[in-house]
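Hi C.,

You asked whether I'd gotten around to modeling the 235-residue construct. I have! Everything is below, sequence then structure, no commentary in between.
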Amino acid sequence: MSDILILTHIDYCPPGHLARVLDQAQCDFRVLRADLGELDGFDLDRPRAVAIMGGPMSVNDPLPWLATEIAALRHFIRRDIPLIGHCLGGQLLAKALGAEVRRMPYTESGWQPLRQTAGAANSPWLSHLPAEFPMFQWHGDSFALPTGAQPLLSSRWCENQAFAWGDKLLALQGHPEMTEELVRQWLDDWRHLLDDSQPSQQSLAQMLDGLATKVQALNQVAEGFYRHWLRLAWR
């Protein structure tokens, strides 16, 4: 059984570039679909590091498997193992830590510039990043900061884009795991959900313009997060 666990919640929100990084590092990993009940009976004391991916549901939806996953995340937090959450995954970590997750009055989507907050100084999660950089976004909920959290990133449309809690947990509101194939798939399948008359959303043309270059830069952002996460697991 693998020491690295990845939790997913829908077929079109896979590990993406995270899986490529793990394959290149020759790290064995296991992917479980929490929404299909695959966490039931799983040995929560086995993983040395856990990543939680995105999904279209809200952490506040009355879904029994969400309660199971949040309970599992609380167990991982008590074990003090490295955790990294992507969008829904970040919101699940926030809720597991007792913070509120709320619906925003708009959707934030596209390549949105993020900036490091004043409280982010010297964070090892951000040591590879400039003061401002873009990340792919697609979310309508956002998390509040849990008690004791260190705010890391912010955007014009979402004040809390990322936080660290302790020295081994990173919650992200955006999608650093995106590949070019995933971006195109989402925009092909879900473009009807977008409304570029909202200033918080980019147009389809803006999202696709220079896509290969944008994804390459995003991969470098993601790899810094993932390398630190892996170092913590075998520290």
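If it helps when you're writing up: The first strand starts at residue 4 and ends at 8.

Thanks,
B.
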